[in-house]
Amino acid sequence: MRKTRLNIGLDRFSGLYLWAAFILVFGFWVPDLFLSMSTVHLIASTQAVSAIIALAVLVPMICGQYDLSVGANANLTGMVAIVLQVKQHWPLLPTLLVSIAIGLAVGAVNGFVVVRFRVNSFIATLGMGSVLTALMLLVTNSQDEPVPLSAGWNNMTQYPVFGFQVIIYYLLAIVLIAWWVVEFTPVGRQMRAAGGNPEAARLSGIRINRLSWWSLVAAGGISGLGGILYTSLTGPSLTFGPDLLLPAFAAVFLGSTQLQPGRFNVWGTMLAIFVLATGVEGLQLVSGAVWVGDMFNGVALILAVALAASRRGKPIAVRRRAIKTAADRPQEADDPAPVQDTAQVGRVA
Amino acid sequence: MTSPAVEIRGLSKTFGVKTVLDSVELTVPPGEIHVLLGQNGSGKSTLIKILSGYHHPDPGGMVRVGGHGLQFGSPASSRALGCRFVHQDLGLVESSSVLDNLLIGPGFPTSAGTIRRGAAARVARAALARVGLDTDPAALVGALGSAERTGVAIARAMLAEDGTPPVALILDEPTAALPVNEVDQLLANLRATAATGAAILYVTHYIDEVTGFADRVSVLRNGVLVATWHVPDLDRDRLIHQLIGAELEQVQRLETPHADTRAKPPVLEATSLRAGPLEGLSLDAWAGEVTGICGLTGSGRESLLGALFGARPRAGEVRVAGQVLKPHRTDLAIEAGLAYLPPDRRASGGVMDMTAGENVTLVNLRPFWRRMLLRKKLEKAEVAGWFEKLDVRPKDGISDPLNTFSGGNQQKLLFAKWLRETPKVLLLDEPTQGVDVGAKAELHRQILATAKQGAAVIVSSTDLDELVTLCSRVLVIRDGRILDEIAGDDLTTRTLNRSFHLEPAAAGSSGDEHA
Questions:
Q1: Whose CA is closest to B308, among B284, B344, B290?
Q2: pTM to 2 decimal places
Q3: Given an 8 Å threshold on Cβ–Cβ distance, is B394 in contact with A331?
C-alpha cells in the first residue's frame, strides 16, 4: 500500500547501492589490488573495532545522549590491558576483566555527571575524553609499551576462523545483542522514547535518568572492549582512540538514514561503517594517499547529518502523496505541512 | 461604494483526482470580521495557501483584494495587494523583545547604520496601539501570555511599512493554543484591527468561542462553502450540522454524585498539596465520577493534575486507594493506577517521531513480551483494536509516525495509551484543546464511559462548556486553593464564569444564583 515498499528503495537502501558502486568502480580500476579476498579480510578485521566503537556511540545516542569519550575510553582500557600484562605480568583473564571494568566505570562516571549534575552529555563526555587521555598518558608514562609476548593475547583477535580473523565474530555477537536489545525488548523501546521526547517518556512512567545512565555505562563497557580488542589486534598505540571517534559518529548518523530511515539503528550503522571503509580502502589503493581516510570520513559525517536533517518531515510528504491519489481518504489532505507554509510567509515578510 | 476587501469567485483546486476546493465564492467587506469554519480536511488550509500565493488554483477562479486581481502563485503579489497572515505557529522569537519581533522584518529606523531607539519604540508602540495593545515594547515575548503574543503577531502583520495599511488580515487557527479566558483579549485586538478598516478572515475549526464576536460566519465542508450566516441569525445546532454533515450525538453527563459512588471511600485523596501556586490544596475523587477543575491562568489550575501525578515537583500527600505515592516517581504512580494526559501534546504528550502504535503501547509492553522477544504482531493487533474503538484515521496508520496525524487523532491515540491501562484515576489536562468538534465528541464519550466503568476522572479545562458537559461537580480554584464546589443544577457555564469573579468571602453563597 505504501509507496516506499513498492519502489526499489533508493532511499532506505541507498547505502547498499553506494557499496555496490564502490566495489564496481574500484574493481574495474584496480582489479588486482581491490578484488581479492585479502582486501575483504583486511576491511573486515580493521573495521571490526570501528564498528564496535560505533555501537558504543549508538546505544546512548538512541537515548538522546552523546558519548564523545568512547575513543579516549577505548585507548585508556586498551593501554591498561597492555601495561597490566607487560609491566605487572598479569595473566590474560584478570587483565581483561579489570580493563573492561575500567571501561564500565568510566561509563558510570559519565552517567553520574550527566544525570546527577545535569551536565549536557555532549560537554560531560567531551571533558571526560580529555581526562581519560590524560589518565592514559599517566598510566603508560607516555611510552608505547612492547607487545605482550603471549600467544593467547594475540590469538584472542587474530586467530583465523573460516578465513576471517576471529574478531569479526566478536563484532557479530555484539551486533546481535545490541540489535536484540534495541529492537526486540521493552528497554529498547523505552530508550527510543527517552531519546525522542524525554518529558513524554517520563510521563509514561519511563525512568529516563536510569536509562540514560545505563546507556552510558553500556557505551563505556563496549568501548572498553573495543579498546582491548584494538591493542590485541594491532598492538599498543597512544593515539588510536581519537581516530576511532569520528568514523563512529559518521556511521551512526549515516546509519540513521538507512534501513529504518529517521531512526538510529544497529544494522544501518553497520552498513555505514563498511560502506565508508570500502570507499576509504579503495581510494587508498588507487591513490596511495594517507589523507584520504580523514577527508572521506569527515565529509561523510557532515553529509550524513545533512541527509538525516533533510529526511526529517519526509514521512509527511510520503503520506500526502499517498492521499492525493487515494480518493477514499478524505482526511487531512490539506492539513499537513504547516511548517512549509510559515516558512513561506516568513520569507515574504 | 468601495470595493470589497476580499472577493473570491469560482475558486476551485484539485490535487490529482481529489477536489479540495469546489467553486468557492466569498466576499468580505472592509472592517468585517468573517469566521471561516471547517473541519480538518475541509479545504481551509488550501484556501489560505491560495490567498498567500503558495498554491495555484484551477483555471477559472478569481480572487480580488481591495479591487485588484491577485496574481496566483505569487506571494509577492499577495503581499503587495495588502494580504497579511498570522498562523497558529506565530513565528515570534520568545527570547527577543516585542520591539525586535515587530521590526525585524520591516527594518529598524536607523541613522548612519545605528538603530534609533526612540523612533523604533514609537513605531512599535503605534503598531501595538493600532491593534488595541499597550504592551511595553521592551518586554520579552517569552514573558507574555498566549493572547498577548497573538496580539503582537497581529500587530506585526498589520505594520504598514510603506504607508499603505494592509487590506486583509487572515488568521489561521489562532485560538488552538489559546486558553478560553484569554480569548476575550484576542477578540478586543481583532475588533481594534477591524476598526482600522481591514477585513479579517478568521479561519478555525473551533466553533464555540469564535462565533460570538464575528460579523458573519461561513462553513466550508469537503471543499464546498455550504453556508454563510450573519451572526445574530446563527443557530448552533444547524451550524454543527453544516460543519460535520450530520447531527452530533449529544453527550449526556453522568448523574452523579449520588449515594452509590460516595458509599465507598474516595479512590484519590490529596492533602495539603503544594506545587507552584498551589497552597495546601486538598481534594478527594470518587470512582465513577467526573470531577472538573476550573480556574483562571495562574490560579494553580494548570499545576494541579501534574502535581497529583508527579509530573511536577510537589509537597503534600497523595493517596491512591489508600496507598501513599512517592512524588517524582511517575512509574509508581502509574502502577498505583494513575493516568495523566498532559495539556501539550507535542511537548509532553506524545513522542512525535515514534509510530502511532509505539505511542499507544509505550506505558506497558509486558503483554507483548514473550519468550525474550517483543511480539510486534500481538502489539499491532491490540493497537488496531484501539484504532477501531476510537475511530482513529487513517485506519492503516499504525506504523506511521505520530506527527503525521491530525491533532484530534493524536489526542485519541494518547487517550488510547491510557485507557489501555484501565486506570483507577484518570487525570486529563485540557483533553480537547485544539481538537475538532467530531473528535471532541468522541473523546467526551470515552471520558464518560471510562468513569462509568469505575474510574475516577478529573478534568482540568479552560473550556467551560466542556466542564459543564462532562462533570458531575466542578471545583473552582483561586490563589492555589479550592474556592468553591459547583454541582447539580447549579453547574452551568454562567455560574462557572461568575465564580471567577466572586470574592472569596462570598464564595459559599453561590447557591443564590438561581434566586
A1: B284
A2: 0.77
A3: yes
For β-strands B473-478 and B481-487, DSSP reports them as: antiparallel
Q: Does A146 sit behind a cis peptide bond, omega within 30 degrees of 0 on the bond before it?
A: no
B125 phi and psi angles, rounded to 5 deg: -65, -40
User: Is the pLDDT score of A210 beyond 80?
Assistant: yes
Look at B400 and A203 and tell me if their CB atoms are within 8 Å: no
Question: Closest chain A residue to B332 measured between Cα atoms?
Answer: A205
- Per DSSP, the three-state class of B199 is strand
- Per-residue pLDDT tens over the stretch A99-135: 999 999 999 999 999 999 999 999 999 999 999 999 9
pLDDT at A213: 97
List all residues of chain A from 201 to 230 with a beta carbon under 8 Å from chain B.
201-207
Closest CA to A280 of A58, A62, A42: A42
Beta strand pairing call for B268-275 and B278-285:
antiparallel
The C-alpha cell that represents B156 in the structure block: 506585526
Cis peptide before B367 (omega within 30 of 0): no
State pLDDT tens for residues B91-135. Answer: 888 888 998 888 887 778 887 888 888 888 888 888 888 888 888
Neighbour-count burial for B192-213, b at 16+ CB within 10 Å, e otherwise? bbbeeebbbbbbbbbbbbbbeb
Query: What's the mean pLDDT in A327-337?
Result: 36
Mutation to test the A interface, candidates B13, B24, B45, B396, most A Cβ within 10 Å:
B45
Cβ pair B330:A347 closer than 8 A: no
- Residue B48's CB is within 10 A of a number of other CB atoms, namely 25
Strand partners, B86: B171
pLDDT at B425 over 90: yes
Which of B272, B513, B265, B301 has the alpha carbon at shortest distance from B427? B301
Among the partner-chain residues A189, A333, A338, the one whose CB lies closest to the CB of B88 is A338
Among B45, B340, B358, the residue with its CB nearest the CB of A334 is B45
Please list, in sequence order, all residues whose beta carbon lies within 8 angstroms of the beta carbon of residue A328, skipping any fewer than 6 positions away: none
Quick check: A323 contacting B, CB < 8 Å? Answer: yes
The reply to whether residue B41 touches residue A204, judged by beta carbons under 8 angstroms, is no
End-to-end C-alpha distance for chain A, whole angstroms: 40
Q: Is the ipTM here above 0.85?
A: no
